[in-house]
Amino acid sequence: MPSMDMLPSISSWHVKQLVYNCLPERFSSGNYTDICVMHSVKEDLANIIAPLMMRPITRWPFFAFLGGAMFCLLVSSMCHLVSCHSQRLSFIMLRLDYAGIASLICTSFYPPVYYSFMCNPFFCNLYMGFITLLGIATTLVSLLPFFQKPQFRTFRASLFCGMGLCGIGPILHKLVLFWGEAEVLHTTGYETVMGLLYGVGAVVYACRIPERWMPGKFDIAGHSHQLFHILVVAGAYTHYRAGLVYLRWRDLRGC
Fold first, then answer.
1. Are residues 98 and 212 in the same domain?
2. 80 annotated binding-site participant
3. What pTM value is reported for the model?
4. Residue 229 labeled ligand binder
5. What is the 3-state secondary structure (H, E, C) of the chain?
6. pLDDT for 23-64, tens place per residue?
7. pLDDT of 149-164, one tens digit each?
């Protein structure tokens, strides 16, 4: 006979299985790749929908990350689209582009920090508050004309690097608290891949790879800025996958 403490987890699992089984199958039979893709889609939908039928773990950190990622990519697209209008508009859009990058980095911390330390309010508020303040400071530095002077270039770059490096502390702390749990190791793997994708993207962009080696060959396609955007989107998607693991883990485990 299961104890009363186990009932929420068992019920949540049964509801997820019910929702998963009720999701529609493909109308035509496909190959093995199609089946795997559909299985992944059904699993993602079940993880998001099923907890809403009971007492769900709050989703706002996950949605905040999605909002930050969409804002970053939207502002970047607008910058590329309209910056050729005039020098003044280009200057404004470039600053908004940097602010979008800051919002993506800041909100990327919300799901791992909140769901890792939701049962430890002190560390949760400490990490969340620190990265939020740093994100606000970086956004202001990106927007204010005073900080656009050449002498502040190193300062601006240091803020962005500092935001990225702030993730090392919470991740190591999470591993110490929950070492051995499969979901924690799974999310850490995703976060490591995300960091590598962002880091490689930054290096490619800063070093102008590959056009520095073959000038004129990548003016239309394949230049560093395009590769940078591809790697950023790949990193954001990797973090999205990690967020789904966090949601499933906390919905089943609780505190």
1. yes
2. yes
3. 0.74
4. yes
5. CCCHHHHHHHHHHHHHHHHHHHCCCCCCCCCHHHHHHHHHHHHHHHHHHHHHHCCCCCCHHHHHHHHHHHHHHHHHHHHHHHCCCCHHHHHHHHHHHHHHHHHHHHHHCHHHHHHHHCCCHHHHHHHHHHHHHHHHHHHHHHHCHHHHCHHHHHHHHHHHHHHHHCCHHHHHHHHHHHCCCHHHHHHHHHHHHHHHHHHHHHHHHHHCCCCCCCCCCCCCCCCHHHHHHHHHHHHHHHHHHHHHHHHHHHHHHCC
6. 544 434 445 555 565 566 666 666 666 555 556 789 999 999
7. 777 777 877 888 888 8
